[in-house]
Amino acid sequence: MNTFAADDAAVGALRSAFHGEVIGPDDESYEHHRRVWNGSIDRKPGLIARCADPTDVVNAVRFGRENSLLTAVRSGGHSFPGLSVCDDGLVIDLRPMDGIRVDPENRTVRAQAGVLLGELDQVTQQFGLAVPAGIVTHTGLAGLTLGGGIGWIMRKYGLTIDQLISVRMVTADGDTVTASAEENPDMFWGVRGGGGNFGIVTDFEFHLNPLGPQVMAGTVYWPVEQAVPVLRFYRDWIAGCPDELMTIVALRRAPATPAVPAELAGQRLIGIAGCYAGSVSEGQTALQALKSFGSPVLDFCAPKPYLEHQQSFDPSFRPGRWYYVRSCDVAELTDDVIDIIAEYGRRILSPITSLALWQLGGAVARVGEDETAFNGRGAGHSFNINGNSETAEGFDHEREWARDFWTALKPYHTSVYVNFLMEEGESRIEQAYGPEKYRRLKTLKRTYDPTNFFRLNQNVRPG
Q1: Which residue spans of the chain are classified as CATH 3.40.462.20?
Q2: CA distance linking residue 334 with residue 336, whole number of Å
Q3: Separation of alpha carbons 112 and 97, rounded Å
Q4: Are 152 and 217 in contact (CB under 8 A)?
Q5: For the chain, where do the domains classified as CATH 3.30.465.10 start and end?
Q6: Beta strand 90-93 with 71-74: parallel, antiparallel or unpaired?
Q7: pTM over 0.85
C-alpha cells in the first residue's frame, strides 16, 4: 500500500517551482527512473525529483523536510546496498546535473553531481589530464568521491578526495554553502570520506593531473590452480614497485567473448591487472616481469588509450544484475591470506562472481591520516568480494560464497572502505572510520544535520 506522506497540493507546488522533472508512480517513465544499478534492489518511491540545477535540489530538500519524507539521494545509483532509492519516500535524483568545465591552464575541473566517471574522463582526457576516480565508467562521481574514491591512478595521485579543491552543497535546512580548506573547513574535512551524511553536494572542483592519452595497462591471467605461486610472485613483485604502478588482483570465470579463446570460456582464472600512470615505455619496463611470469593463458596488458582501459571492467558490472559485496582491508598478503584467496577462487560458481583485490599505498598513504575523514590509508590491500548473479536464481549461493570468503579472512581484517559496505550496522560504519574519526563525524553531523534527515547512506547518527 502506498504510504507517501505528501498531499497533492504539496506535490503540485513542487512541480510548479521545479526546473527538472517530478515523476510519480503514474508517470510513464517511473519504472525506468526508480531502478538502480543493483538489480536485487526493488524499491518504489512515492516521488522522484530529477533535479536540473542546484535550485531544484534546494526545493526538493525543503519539500522532503516539510513533508517529513524518507529521502534518498542518487547520483549514479551505484550504491551496493541500494541506498540511493527508497520505498514510499522521496528520491532526489541528481543525474540530469551533468555539467563539466575544464580550466586547462590552471589544471582544474568543475563537475556537477550527476556526472558519471566515464563522462568526466572523456572531457578531461581531451587535455591529457585526469582526476583519480574509480574503475567502472558508469559509476557516479558524487558517491565515489564522498566515500574517498579509489581507482587506477591513486598510487600516483592519491584518492579522488585528495584532488578535491571545494564543493558546493545543500544542507538539511535547504541552505547552500561552500566547503573548502578556507571556507567551512570542518565540513570540507567531513565530506572527504564521510559520505552524504552532511548534505547534498551539487558541484565539485578538482585538481587535474597529467595522464595519457596512451597508457600501459591491462590484465594478465593464469589458471586458478596456479593462484598460490602467482600471488606469491605478485607479493614480492609489488614490494618495490613505483607509485606510477597500480594493480588489482582478480578472481573470476573467463567470459565468453571474442577476445577469449573458446576453450577458456568459463574457466576459473586469476588475473593481475595493472595500469602505469606514466610514459608507455616506462610502463612496459615496469610490467614486463608480470607479463613473463609463468605461462599466462591470456594477456591483455598492452599500450592503449586510458579511456579504453577505464572501460575494461564495465562489462563485468552491467546495470541490472544482482550484486552483493563483502569487504575488508588487510595489512599484507601473508601465506595464509594467499591460501584463502586461492581456495575461494576454486569455488567460484557464477560467471559474474568475482574478487577485486586492490593494491593501496603510494600517494594514498602519504596523506596524513587526520587530514580527511577517510580511514585506512595505511592498509596494504582492500578486498572487494562480489557474490553476483544475473537474476535471483543462484543469488543466495553467491552471497554465501562472499560471506564465507570474508569470514575466512576475518583474523586478518584491519579497516574497511566505506563505499564497499552493504547495510551492515553501526559497528561496521564505526570500523570504516575508526573510533576517533567516528566521534568527530558524529559531532559534525549534529552541527549540520541534527535531525538525521540525510540518513539513507552509511549513516553517522548525530552524536
Answers
A1: 214-420
A2: 5
A3: 6
A4: yes
A5: 100-210
A6: parallel
A7: yes
Model confidence pLDDT, tens digit, residues 327-370:
999 999 999 999 999 999 999 999 999 999 999 999 999 999 99
Q: Delimit the CATH 3.30.43.10 region(s) of the chain.
A: 8-93
| CATH class of the domain whose range is 100-210 | alpha beta
CATH of domain 8-93: 3.30.43.10
Per-residue pLDDT of 362-402, as tens digits, reads 999 999 999 999 999 999 999 999 999 999 999 999 999 99
Q: Which of 118, 152, 159 is nearest to 311 (CA)?
A: 118
Q: What is the CATH number of domain 214-420?
A: 3.40.462.20
Q: With contact defined as beta carbons under 8 Å apart, do 108 and 165 qualify?
A: yes
φ/ψ of residue 103, rounded to 5 = -110, 90
Q: Dig out the grid coordinates for 254 from the structure.
A: 573467463
End-to-end CA distance of the chain: give it in Å, rounded. Answer: 34
